[in-house]
Structures are given as structure tokens and as C-alpha cells.
Amino acid sequence: MRHYLFALLLGLLLSGCFETNFNFETVIRRDGSMDRKVQIEGRSADRFLPPSGPEWTVKTFETKGEQPILEDVQYHIHGKGHFAHADDFTSDFQYDVSRLIANLTPETREELVHDLGLPEPLENEVGAANQVDLVRERSFWRTTYEYRERFQVRRLIPILIHDLKKEIHRKRSESSKLLTHALSGAQAGTPSGTSEPIDLSAAELEELAKRRLVEEILPAFRFHSEVTLPGVIVDTNATRVRRQTALWDFNGVDFEDDFSVYQLRVTSRSSNIGLIIAVLVIVVSIIGALVLRQRRVLARRGGRRSRNASSGGGVR
Predict the structure, then answer these.
(1) Is residue 301 domain-resident?
(2) pLDDT digit string (tens) for 152-197?
(3) How many domains does the chain have?
(4) Could you tell me if 143 and 269 are in contact, meaning their C-beta atoms sit under 8 angstroms apart?
(5) Range of the domain at 120
(6) Which of 233, 237, 45, 276 is nearest to 141 (CA)?
(7) How confident is the model over 82-93, as a mean pLDDT?
(8) Does the predicted model carry a pTM greater than 0.85?
(9) Is residue 1 part of a domain?
(10) 93 inside domain
């Protein structure tokens, strides 16, 4: 019973310890300004920093989770920001590197630098961030908006794989010791069945770590992003489109370049109706003024002819 309870607790810990949901809502205005909402929630949300800067309003809080057995805490980061220009946007996807580095022993730090080739200082080389790029091209008839957002994870994946390899090696070593102890206490004879090999090559250990990364850890980081642009969306790599809004749903497995980069891309075109109407009003006003002026000129000429005709009739 105690063994079953321990296995249950361990399973709950492993299944939920990385669970984090990211929700981003972006609205681009016609003048190029940008409104942004972000929500980061889950058991690992505290591993990420809330956005900062004068443009942001941020609220952080904790709630009790639904697991009755464990001390289950859900962390929440909610933020709203307004940016006069998209270039002023500050990242709302930032891993708390200082917390990670602070928990490293000098031996572990040296191990990461030596084994993974991570350059010092680690604080400047490890992390996560997102960057927004908006290009607004305006012509007489229409304005084109090209929105790009890049999520980047820098060197965290190699560190995670490194830790997974150590954990796999530790567990298999413990299994080997237990098996040796069991065999030494058993009666002579060949055990029934075959046991999984304990010793692994470096390639096999790497493969097991990557498999666990892809199957258990990365899917727990779930992203939802919505980007609303003026006009009609004409090109995007979004999961789906709803009117003027492009929507993405992805997780850590969908990141490219060894799970380090994910890019959002959407383009829209908007007719410059206000400018066109203003120009038409000006043109119509000019034409109306010219027509009115021509009528006045013709009216003056007609009046002169009438007066001349009246004067000629009196002389006769």
C-alpha cells in the first residue's frame, strides 16, 4: 500500500510539475499602436517573470489546485499593456533565469559549461523571450499590416535534456542495485523472463531523454495566441482565422530548431476609406466651386447683354 501511494504521488508530480498555459491577445490599431493582454497560469507559471515597464498593468496571485493529495498551487500572471508603437513592446514571455542560476551549485555550473559548451556568464546566455515586429506600408488606396512575433527559448532545452539524462541514469542505477540485491537473496536458478538492460550508451541515453522531453514535458507548455488586425487577413500561418483575427494553438513540441523557436506570421490589407472619402469630398468641393463660379460668370454676362439690349431699344 505504501509503495502504491508513493508511485501515485510520484506520477502526479511528474505529470503536472511542468504544466503551464500561455494566453496572448494582441490588437493592432490603424495608427500602428498595439494593445496586449497576457495570462500565464499553471503549476510552473512562477518560473516565468511578469512583464514590466510603464506600459504594463500587472496582477499576480495564487490559487489552490484540484489535487487533494498534494500541496497543489496554481500560479497566475495577468497583464495588460498599451504601446504607441509596436516597437515599444516589451517581452511577456520571460523565463526566470536568475532563479535557475541561483539554484546551481558551482559544480553543476561548471558541468554545464564543460559538457554543454555554454558560455559564461550563463545569465546572459540562457532564457526565453518574445519579440514583436510590425511593418505598416501605406499607399493611397490601402494600408498593409505585416505582423511577426517570434518566441525564442535560448539554451534551456539542452539544460533540460542534460538533467533528464542524469535522472534516467540515476533511476536505472537504482533499478540495477535493486535487481542485484534481489538476485543475491534468491535461490540459485535462472530468473524467469528477461530484464531491461541497465547499461546504456551515450546515444541511447540521449534518445531516451529526448523522447521523454517530447512526450511528457514539452506538451505541458500550451500556448494560445490571438492577433487582430485592421482590414482583411490575406496571409498567415495561423491555426485558423476568425474574421479579422488570426488564432494559434501550439505547444512546446511545435517549436522549431531543436524546440527553440516559434514564429507567428499574419498580413492584412485595409482600404483607406477615410482618406479616399476626404479626397472625394475635396474634389467634389472643388468641382462644385468651379461650377458655381462658372454660373456666376455666365449670369453676369447675361445681365450685361440684357442691359445692352435695353439701352439699344431706347435709342430707336
Answers:
(1) no
(2) 999 899 988 988 888 888 887 776 566 555 556 555 455 544 444 4
(3) 1
(4) yes
(5) 16-185+195-274
(6) 276
(7) 95
(8) no
(9) no
(10) yes
